[in-house]
Structure formats: C-alpha cells, structure tokens
Amino acid sequence: MIEILSYPFMQRALIAALLTGLIAPAIGVYIVQRRLSLLGDGLGHVALAGVGLALLTGAAPIPIAVAACVAGAVVVEILRQRGKASGDVGLAVLFYGGLAAGVFLSGISGVGAAGLTQYLFGSLTTVTPSDLRLITVLAIVILVITLGLSPQLYAVSTDEEFARTQGLGVRLYHIAVVSLAAITVALAMRTVGLLLVSALMVVPVAAARNLVRGFTAALLCAVGIGVATAVGGAAASFYVNAAPGAFIVLLAIAVFVVSWPVSYFLRRRNATAVLPEPVDDDELVAPHMITEDHPHRHEPGCGHPAMQHGDHTDFIHEGHRHAAHADHYDEH
Amino acid sequence: MLVEAGMVLAANDLTVERGGLPVLRGVSISVRAGEAVALMGGNGSGKSTLVRTLLGLLPHRRGEVHLFGSPLQDFRDWSRIGYVPQRSPALLGGSKVKEVVAAGRLARRRPFRPLSRGDRDAIDHAIALVGLADLVNADITALSGGQQQRVLVARALAGKPDLLVLDEPTSGIDLEQQQVLAGVLAGLLAQGTSLLVVLHEVGPLRRLIDRAVVLSDGRVLHDGPLGDLGQHRSGVGTHQHHDHASQLHDDRDHSTETLLGGAMDP
After folding, report:
1. Which domains does chain A have, with CATH numbers?
2. Fold classification of B1-68+162-266 (topology level)
3. CA count, 13 A, side-chain hemisphere, B168
4. A225-250 pLDDT per residue, tens
C-alpha cells in the first residue's frame, strides 16, 4: 500500500480522488433531496462536449469541460424554472446533444471516440499538476458553499415554497446547486469519470440515509463514505490496472448494499424497544381500510403495543392494528 | 387601495388564473393586527390558491397585495410571516424534526453564519410549544399525521412571526389533536399574533375566530362574523358532490344562500 505513494502521478491521483470523494456527496445530498438524482448523469454527457472541444483546440480538458458543464446546467435550470422544459424532452436534447458533440469533435480532432474512454471512466495516470491545482481550488469553493450554506440549500431543496416564504432567493440557490453539481461532474472526469460520477453523487447519500438519522448527519456520513470509496477504489485500480471509476462505484454500491440490512436492524430495534403491555382483544372490530376520527394518537410509548409491519409500525388497538398513514390511521 | 393602519394583510380585487381558467375573481380580503380570520369554502372554491397568492407563491393577473403595509413585490420582512402549508415535501423523509423546524429561522439568519443561541432557543421553544419536545431528534417519517402537522406549525413559529397563515391545519387530524392546536393558536392570539386560517370546517377553532371570509367559486361570498356559519350540520352531507366534512357549499347550492341570509352581497 505504501509503494503506490512513491509515484508522483499516484499521489496526484489519490489526492484528486480524495477531493472528488469529498465534493461529490456534499453536493449530491442536495441533488438527491431535490429528487434530481439523474441530473449528474446528464451533465456528464454535456461535459463530454467540452472534452471534445479541448481535444480539437489542444487545450486542457478540465477547464473547458467545467465551462461547458456549468453552461449546460444553468440552461437546464432556467428552462425548468420557466416551465419550458416540458417533461424531460428538453433535458434529453441537451444531454444527448452534448454526448454527440463530444464524439463528433473528438472525431474531427483526430483522436477518435476511443480517446474519450479515459474521460468516461477515469484514468489515474492523467492527473496533471495543473489539473490538481484546479481541482483543489474548485473543491474548496464547493465545500465552503455546500457546508456554509447548508441550512439555506437544505430548505430550498426540501420545501421550495416554504423557503420562498422565508424570503430566500430560491432561483439563485437552485442555480448555485446545479452549477456546483456541474463543476463536480467535470472535475471528476480524471477519477471516477464522467459516466460514473453521478453514482458517487447519489450512492453514498443513499447509503448514509440508511445508516444515520437526519439531514446533517447524512451529509457528513455520505462525505465519509465518498472519501473512503473514492480513495479505496483509486488505490485498488492501481494494482489491477483497470479504470478507477469502476472500482470506486462498485465499492460505493457495496456500502449501499450493506447499509440495507443495517438500516432494517436499526429500525427494528427502535420499534421493538417500545413494546408495552399485552393486548385486550375482547372487542374485535370488523376490519375496514381507514379508521374514523381516531381520538388517540399512536406513538412509541403511547400504551398500545407496537409492532413492525413492513416499512412502518402498526399499533395494536382493541384487537386490530392501526398504522399511521399521512393524516389518518389505516386498519391492517 | 388605501392601506389602513394596523392592517397586517390586505388584498384588493385579486384575480388569479391557473391553466387559463380563472380560479379567483376579484377577491378582496384583509387581516388586522391581532385578528383571527378564517378563510372558508367548499372544495375547489379557491382557498389554498388565495393563501398562496397572498404569500407570493402564485402570480396574480390583477389586483394587489399588501403585507404589513408594503406591496407584495417590495416586501422583505419575511420573518414577520409564518406559513403552515397543508402538506410539505419536508415530511417525505430524510430530516429530523429539529431540522425541519430550523428552516423556520432562515428569514432571520444570514448566509454562512451558524445557528445563534437565539436561533436554538427559538427552535426549541417552538417545538415545545406544539408539544413535541420529546421528539426533537426523531425522524420526521416516524411521526403520526397529527404530529407532522404540528411540526409544520412549529416551523412557522420558529421565526416568531406576527402573522401566521395556516392552510387547513385541522384537516384529517383527530379531535384531540385539533384541540391541542387550538390551544397553541389561542396562546399566540393572546400575545398579539394575527391569524389567517384556511378551514374546511370550524371545529375546535370556533372560539378563536373573529371573522370568517367565505369563498365560493373564486368569489367572496361572505365576510363578517362567523355567526351561524358552520353550525347547520344537519343540512350538510346530503349533496353527493360535496365532501362529507364540508360545512359550506358553493353557489350552486341553494342551502348555502339560505344559511348565509342577508350577509351575502347581491
């Protein structure tokens, strides 16, 4: 494990992976909260147009990809805010347009579409010192904003209307979130790659939500998972000589898969911890779907035995079971 | 329109269209300082649309809204308003009770500043006020519907607003929970907070209400004392096109006209 640190390119690659692992879940948590999990995938396609342009002009690919990706993200967001991105069609046109432009530009530059592979799935040997400087600066900007504006971004991503009644400039915050996501996607092309970066934005967040309770805890936990899987995946790919993106994403998914039974266990423990006295089932009530006005509020410790039922808790009440559902109780 | 002194909310001649169809037609409504106004009407009468227009969440085609004496487009003092929506995506999960309520402090917070001592106290106080002090760290999805509704009330109260706007806070909540809510609102009124409450039926909030504005088909049908409104339960529920819980009817329903009597504008 130590010898890989003796190669300068590997040092740069691991630092780039560390930074990507930090920022991808930090911005991803807001993307997931806003239910835009697939946004990063589309932005990766747009970034490819920037890569194609860089290959054609001989410029460094990351800065141009960042610019293309941010421009694409802002256009998508403004179309969405004006209600003009009817359905998903507008997004699809932009995203596949970006992909096609990337392949086209790389073709006429003489590199060919095969030359794009290293950007799609990451490539450890390609992180230049100037790439690393740019990644470091932009990662700091992203972390400062995603952590410093966390209360505002949380509110805007969670309940937009309420955020507006708090006087927040919701449109500007939305544009900030998608722009930061776009920068993250473009920066990640050297490590996880443009096609897989979306997974690093979403999967650690999904795993963290299973493991911890609350938004802030999930944010921190997701960043931890992101760093561990990005660095671990990059290091592993050195030994196997495969694209690092694949390792990073497979590791993240492995954490997610493990988080399922853990979350089930945690919830089960919480539910059974409140089991009180036995049931009096003298009066069996004929089952029906929704209870009438129910004067009693069921909660852990309310006096009715609780039992886990699938994804929720039933309370045993006069011989039948009540399950809280939105604003009423269902009979189970 | 002249904005009277002491008006916390005043809207004049509001017309709102959604999808090209008029939802509100020339609606005027006002709330004075310390007043509790109920906004009532049947399903589809435009209650929620009106409330959301008053808060600037929906655009209006005609008319004007003043909040605390400022035209809506110039209004910046959002900490004076607490909004309790009927439902919120914040209840879908991923948040603790405390985190949802903390969003109610944002009008008073500056970017890049951590929660101040005052913010923390206000959040804790708001949660305690609605009786959820034991559940501050609970996952929002672990709560019952009534408890979730109270989280939304606490979120609106965390900013210590002068006007609380609640959209059907009692719908689908059992009587006991409604009484808890009535107690919380009574305490706020006693401190001088103004209330605008959308109600489907009056219920335990009756004793708090100073005035009722009744909407029907996008127009104001009644603006005055609650009086007999909502007490004639017997005449209700016989019309199949109405929700069984509805106590007020739209203008196709002649029993409403009799019910409202002379209070109705010709």
Report:
1. 3-264 (1.10.3470.10), 274-332 (no CATH)
2. Rossmann fold (3.40.50)
3. 21
4. 999 999 999 999 999 888 899 999 99
